[in-house]
Amino acid sequence: MTVTPTSEPLTTLSVDTLVIPLPHPVTSADTDTLTDALGVSFTRALRNLGGEVGDTVVFYPEASEAEQVVLVHAGAIDADDAEALRRGAAGAADAVRTAQADTVGLVLPSLPASLQAGTQAATQALVEGLALAHYRYTAYKTDVDDAAPTLDAVHVAYRSDHDAEAIADGATRAQHFVQATYSARDLVNRSPHEKTARDLAAAIEASGDTHGYTVETWDREQIEDEGMGGLLAVNRGSVEPPTFSIMEWAPDQAVNSRPVVLVGKGVVFDTGGLSLKPTKDSMDFMKADMGGAAAVVGTFEAAAQMKLPLHLIGLVPATDNRPGGHAYVPGEVVTMHSGATVEVMNTDAEGRMLLADALSYARRYDPELVIDLATLTGAAVTALGHYASAVMTSNTPDAAERLYALQRAGERTGDRVHPLPLYDDYKKQLKSEIADLTNVGGRPAGSITAGKFLEHFTDYSWMHLDIAGTAFLSSAQPYSPKGGTGAGVRLLADYLDHYARA
């Protein structure tokens, strides 16, 4: 998909579909836009438009080169929040897809004076909303009619009173964020039979080749040599070997002398192991248990496309978690990469075992900051549902500043996070009589005790994102269809962009 700005008059803009977001309150400039594009009065155009954000009405005007014009309710514009525009534009995706439109004109509405400085953000939000909502994964569809049409080009139409440079920047940024999110969604949605640990590692290598970052892939022997006991324990029930992918984006103009490290949980399918999951509403969507790994891949792609001036390292430990004659069992003690010993009380708490090894390995980079992403706990879903990811952070001097910056990135992108505490009081829930700690802390505060477990393997500035509720959806949200969402990609791309400029 390409995204390009245009100042061409709407009546002569040659696109399949013209999308006109209508924010509230309506301005005279917007009414003029409607009249020019539709060839009908403003009052008539609004007659059938619903009152909810995302509601649409479709016209087939003779005055426009477009085959159809979609008017969409874009809600109230707030100077600090472009999310209404993102959700409003998403409402037009169904009409665009139904018309099988390959090219779309997206009209930038008039902006209040308070938001003129946010023209870039408004442009980005509109394009993201439309394109992210348009996404469908159809790799396994055999009926051509079921295959989603491709959105090849989006032309952002603007008037002379808009900031053309800001619009161009917003359009380019949106194109990068959307492509990276698509990549993460595609990885999550891929069938498990084509997504072994080696398949995931190969996909990461292919992404690196395409986007210009380096990838090193370790096999079982190298993982054994490194002493990654957690990853190896989880892998024991599988017929497929584990992998450990090391990604690096190291531009010459990097502003950080010590890297930022991103760690993604790569459990390509999770049965729960011997602590077997139920199928319904649990194991049936566990192909998404590598959503953290997908988010790291997407973030690296966005960073490379943006030419982000940051030295980044990405770590993806990958395996499936299955029952079997050699599977790790409740009650056994595992020696981790760090040398710490863990008493396994539940084999379905496997993600933290992989992540702990990767977080321990990250120490050798002397990182400036480490961020891990994982579909880690059902408790995060219980606490926050599907509308925000949980975030926990180490108690270092920069913790409050880091957390605030990440929350602001979440508000800007709509990929929101909410903090949970990591008080030392929670340590006692992980106490073991025979090892250094257990891998579960009981039912109370399950997300927090999982974070507390991971904290044991860190001694640097660190943030943990539990994306269990946001990485995969069983019912659609405004610009996230059912299935993989790409949670974390736009959040981290935005956060790291601001981090580099701080």
TrEMBL record:
Residues 346-353 form the Cytosol aminopeptidase domain. Mn(2+) 2 binds at K265, D270, D289, E350. Its cofactor is Mn(2+). One of its GO terms (molecular function) is manganese ion binding. It is found in: Cytoplasm. GO terms for biological process: proteolysis. Its EC number is 3.4.11.1, 3.4.11.10. GO terms for cellular component: cytoplasm. Binds 2 manganese ions per subunit. The active site is at K277, R352. It is an enzyme of class 3 (hydrolase). Keywords: Aminopeptidase, Cytoplasm, Hydrolase, Manganese, Metal-binding, Protease. It catalyses: Release of an N-terminal amino acid, Xaa-|-Yaa-, in which Xaa is preferably Leu, but may be other amino acids including Pro although not Arg or Lys, and Yaa may be Pro. Amino acid amides and methyl esters are also readily hydrolyzed, but rates on arylamides are exceedingly low; Release of an N-terminal amino acid, preferentially leucine, but not glutamic or aspartic acids. Pfam families: Peptidase_M17 (PF00883), Peptidase_M17_N (PF02789). It comes from the Bacteria. The keyword DNA-binding does not apply. Its main location: cytoplasm. Mn(2+) 1 binds at D270, D348, E350. Belongs to the peptidase M17 family. Presumably involved in the processing and regular turnover of intracellular proteins. Catalyzes the removal of unsubstituted N-terminal amino acids from various peptides. This is Probable cytosol aminopeptidase. It comes from Longimonas halophila.
